[in-house]
């Protein structure tokens, strides 16, 4: 078995850098595992025990090896090659990171489930790879499945890529069938990297992760020159310099090496403690005699979606801050700043790349730090021009200007939806309801169609994906990318309890949806807020104009009424119990609102879309 002990500076002609792109669950990780096994990087015996159980191993080793990049030895016709397999994050929120990972490769294996065919993320990733001139190796996976239809889907794939159906390789990542041949084809088809060995060093960061024991581990691909340990390096976007503690390759554990040359992929450890100092897309060079021009394409991750996060129990606020700070060490895209809400108390306004990013973050905070959280309705970033020509960036409904507004701009996206043809009607209806505009429609095969829409991001982030899934019984897949901004008729709807606005419920919506949002919230709150000793009007308003109203009727609740004639200790107990309950109430003006009402009112579970069904 070939090994890499001390191997450094492999000649570029021997190197092949590739990634595997696929729709979720089409078998990327399983194929990666099989490659580790077939190339002998992981022993047969260790394979079963360790590599299929990635989470455990990650925990054990304390370093994320989730195939961020793995170096595999492979011989074709008697000559040795080094394959770097680079993993790409799968989801649309992390598109920028996917694109940087693709930039580190010359080729991509496009993996498609032979029982399902092309899905939205298959296409999104394929277009991104084609944009970067990567060589595409089309592969059908799961050919062992009884439901596999390789004939149909090779034709579909060939049609999209513009190759012959016979060029589409067939594998089973599960059984290993066809994987050796696939590796041979990677060597034959994917071009070797090119770069200038004598030039000042330039390497691109395509991923960086925080490791509790070692600090930030930065994954790089060297483009020109070489990176060697014990030299100081410079991050070109900030000019910050760092000492290099270790340079290495991953095969499959991190192994220190003497350096990385042109076309090589590996990792750096500098001892920095925060991934924001080692940003994806940045160029690394040597501090002395370094390069002057960075590689193209560095972009700061920009939050697209904002939401307030509040602890259900106000005393957890310091813990929430600590948990957010900890998460930020490993997530350069997460931003947060303290905010106070009259209704929810102290919390943080957080910025996310997208809704999935929000959900993952919230989930991790709750799971890893044991916090109970309320998140306010997510909103996108609006550009508002007031009547006196001032321009504001609004990331929070409470920052919406009070005076007259000249115009409002909101971000829009280009969406791709792939679905069986049976659902075209219902998808179109849904998209139109969300202010979508049809850009085009193509048939992938007789019974499957691709629909392209432009749609405001603000409409997608609520419950669009859930609505799409439930209307198509889970068959449709969605992908979207940002695509500039458009002017829209947007208004802020306030929800008032007894004439007082509850900031947590304010939302920025399209003028046409304002009435729907207002009535929905008012009805929900009437059901959720218990009756008080006085009448409580619930109103929805745009500025001072009320657009919906509900009323909670008054009651006089005498908890002791039932205890007539009972003994005094029982009465005391009841009063104590009532006092406990009150602690969990939030006072909005004179109205007592149970914490659960906020949680329930802010959840989108009962959105209008679902109610319709
Ligand atoms: N029958 C069969 N099942 C497979 C094959 N390859 C993968 N699977 C199964 O498909 C499911 C998804 O596989 P993964 O490798 O986790 O897919 P993935 O694309 O990495 O998914 P994410 O990591 O969630 O994006 C798993 O249950 C695998 O066991 C195959 O060749 N045949």
From TrEMBL:
Pfam families linked: EFG_C (PF00679), GTP_EFTU (PF00009), GTP_EFTU_D2 (PF03144), LepA_C (PF06421)
Record's keyword annotation contains Repeat: no
Membrane topology (UniProt): Peripheral membrane protein
Binding site for GTP: 25-30, 141-144
EC category: hydrolase
Lineage top rank: taxon: Bacteria
Keyword Transport recorded: no
One Gene Ontology MF term: translation elongation factor activity
This protein's UniProt keywords: Cell membrane, Elongation factor, GTP-binding, Hydrolase, Membrane, Nucleotide-binding, Protein biosynthesis
Its job: Required for accurate and efficient protein synthesis under certain stress conditions. May act as a fidelity factor of the translation reaction, by catalyzing a one-codon backward translocation of tRNAs on improperly translocated ribosomes. Back-translocation proceeds from a post-translocation (POST) complex to a pre-translocation (PRE) complex, thus giving elongation factor G a second chance to translocate the tRNAs correctly. Binds to ribosomes in a GTP-dependent manner.
Family the UniProt entry places it in: Belongs to the TRAFAC class translation factor GTPase superfamily. Classic translation factor GTPase family. LepA subfamily.
CDD domains for this protein: EF4_II, EF4_III, LepA, lepA_C
Alphabetized Gene3D superfamilies for the sequence: 3.30.70.240, Elongation factor 4, C-terminal domain, Elongation Factor G (Translational Gtpase), domain 3, P-loop containing nucleotide triphosphate hydrolases, Translation factors
Name used for this protein in its record: Elongation factor 4
Catalytic activity: GTP + H2O = GDP + phosphate + H(+)
Natural source organism: Actinokineospora guangxiensis
């Amino acid at each position: 078995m070939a090994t890499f002990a001390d191997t450094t500076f492999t000649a570029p002609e021997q190197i092949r850098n590739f990634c595997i792109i696929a729709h979720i669950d089409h078998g990327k990780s399983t194929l990666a595992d099989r490659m580790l096994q077939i190339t002998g990087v992981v022993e047969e015996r260790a394979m079963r025990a360790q590599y299929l159980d990635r989470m455990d191993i990650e925990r054990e080793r304390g370093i994320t090896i989730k195939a961020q990049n793995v170096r595999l030895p492979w011989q074709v016709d008697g000559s040795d090659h080094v394959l770097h397999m680079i993993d790409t994050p799968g989801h649309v929120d992390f598109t920028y990171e996917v694109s940087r990972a693709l930039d580190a490769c010359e080729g991509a294996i496009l993996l498609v489930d032979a029982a399902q065919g092309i899905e939205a993320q298959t296409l999104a990733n394929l277009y991104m790879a084609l944009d970067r001139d990567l060589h595409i190796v089309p592969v059908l996976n799961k050919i062992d499945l009884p439901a596999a239809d390789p004939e149909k889907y090779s034709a579909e794939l060939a049609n999209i890529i513009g190759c012959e159906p016979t060029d589409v390789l067939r594998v089973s990542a599960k059984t290993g069938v066809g994987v050796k041949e696939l590796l041979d084809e990677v060597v034959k088809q994917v071009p070797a990297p090119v770069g200038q060995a004598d030039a000042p060093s330039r390497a691109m960061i395509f991923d960086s992760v925080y490791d509790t024991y070692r600090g930030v581990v930065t994954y790089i691909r060297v483009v020109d020159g070489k990176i060697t340990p014990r030299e100081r390096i410079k991050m070109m976007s900030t000019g910050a310099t760092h000492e290099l503690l270790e340079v290495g390759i991953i095969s499959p554990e991190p192994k220190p090496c003497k350096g990385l040359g042109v076309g090589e992929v590996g990792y750096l450890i500098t001892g920095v403690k925060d991934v924001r100092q080692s940003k994806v897309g940045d160029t690394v060079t040597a501090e002395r005699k370094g390069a002057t021009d960075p590689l193209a394409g560095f972009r700061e991750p920009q939050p697209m979606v904002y939401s307030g996060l509040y602890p259900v129990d106000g005393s957890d606020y310091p813990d929430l801050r600590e948990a957010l700070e900890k998460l930020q060490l490993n997530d350069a895209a997460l931003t947060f700043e303290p905010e106070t809400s009259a209704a929810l108390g102290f919390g943080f306004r957080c910025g996310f790349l997208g809704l999935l990013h929000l959900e993952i973050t919230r989930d991790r905070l709750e799971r890893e730090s044991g916090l109970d959280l309320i998140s306010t309705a997510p909103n996108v970033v609006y550009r508002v021009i007031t009547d006196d020509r001032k321009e504001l960036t609004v990331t929070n409904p409470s920052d919406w200007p009070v005076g007259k507004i000249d115009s409002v701009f909101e971000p829009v996206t280009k969406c791709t939806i792939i679905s069986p043809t049976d659902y075209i009607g219902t998808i179109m209806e849904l998209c139109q309801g969300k202010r979508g505009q049809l850009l085009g429609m193509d048939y992938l095969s007789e019974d499957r169609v691709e629909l392209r829409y432009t749609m405001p991001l603000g409409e997608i982030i609520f419950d669009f994906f859930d609505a799409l899934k439930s209307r198509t019984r889970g068959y449709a897949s969605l992908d979207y990318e940002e695509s500039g901004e458009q002017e829209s008729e947007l208004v802020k709807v306030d929800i008032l309890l007894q004439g007082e606005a509850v900031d947590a419920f304010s939302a920025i919506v399209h003028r046409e949806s304002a009435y729907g949002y207002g009535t929905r919230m008012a009805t929900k709150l009437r059901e959720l807020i218990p009756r008080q000793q006085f009448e409580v009007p619930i109103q929805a308003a745009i500025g001072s104009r009320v657009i919906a109203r509900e009323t909670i009727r008054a009651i006089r609740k005498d908890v002791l009424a039932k205890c007539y004639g009972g003994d005094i200790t029982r009465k005391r107990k009841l009063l104590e119990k009532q006092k406990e309950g009150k602690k969990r109430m939030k006072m909005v003006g004179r109205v007592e609102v149970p914490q659960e009402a906020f949680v329930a009112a802010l959840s989108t579970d009962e959105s209008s879309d679902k109610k319709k069904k």
